[in-house]
Amino acid sequence: MSLERELNLEAPFRDVYHEAVLNVVRTGGVLTTAGEQLFRQFDLTEAQFNVLFSLKYNPHNVTQSDLGKRLVVTRASITSVLDRLESKGLVTREDVPDNRRIYHVALTERGRALVDEVEPLYREKIRETMAGMTEEDCRDLIALLERVRSHTDARQEMTV
């Protein structure tokens, strides 16, 4: 369905670039909502799942700061997410010798068991959501979105 119809607009978009950006934003929202429905069943948020997922696939010590950068969240946000995960017994924060300002974050056995349980359902949900696309379509979409981010990143660096 076109975005015009989906949003019940009375006039067509006049700017295809604006329409493209709104399509990306709207699609992101739809995908986020689908993920939230899945994660809610496990008393998780998308951000909490992303932390657990990131920790599962990182074999090295990960600091709180590393997670914040990887997940593109603020320092305050990652602290809040980790506080919640720690209170649920899903992660631990361990002191780093000789540096009292840094903590390593690690999955607990319970955290690993939960991410192992949710991950296959998450991957299934992704496949359902993307069912209308081929692998080639997905690769094309990835390339297009990478071009947008690359161009945007380059322009932001020029203004800093």
Tell me briefly what this model is.
With 160 residues, the protein is mainly alpha-helical. The protein is built from seven helices and three strands; from the N terminus they run αααβααββαα.
The structural class is: mainly alpha
**Secondary structure tally, helices:** 7
Task: Please state the second-level CATH architecture of the largest domain.
Answer: Orthogonal Bundle
Rg from Cα: 19 Å
CATH topology of the largest domain: Arc Repressor Mutant, subunit A
Q: Compute the average pLDDT.
A: 88
Strand content: 5-15%
Uncertain runs with pLDDT below 50, 5 residues or more?
Answer: none
- CATH homologous superfamily name of the largest domain? Winged helix-like DNA-binding domain superfamily/Winged helix DNA-binding domain
Strand arrangement across the biggest beta sheet: 1-3-2
Distance between the termini: 39 Å
Helix content: 55-70%
Compute the number of strand runs.
Answer: 3
The overall number of domains is 2
- What is the CATH level 1 assignment of the largest domain? Mainly Alpha
> How does the major sheet shape up?
3 strands, antiparallel
List the secondary-structure elements in sequence, H or E: HHHEHHEEHH
Q: Which descriptor suits the 3D outline?
A: elongated
Task: Kindly describe this structure.
- The model has no long low-confidence stretch (mean pLDDT 88).
- A hairpin with a 2-residue loop joins β2 (91-96) and β3.
- The protein has helices at 3-6, 16-40, 46-56, 64-70, 75-87, 109-129, 135-159; strands spanning 62-63, 91-96, 99-107.
- The protein starts with a helix and ends with a helix.
- With 160 residues, the chain is mainly alpha-helical.
- It has a three-stranded antiparallel β-sheet.
- α3 (46-56) crosses α6 (109-129).
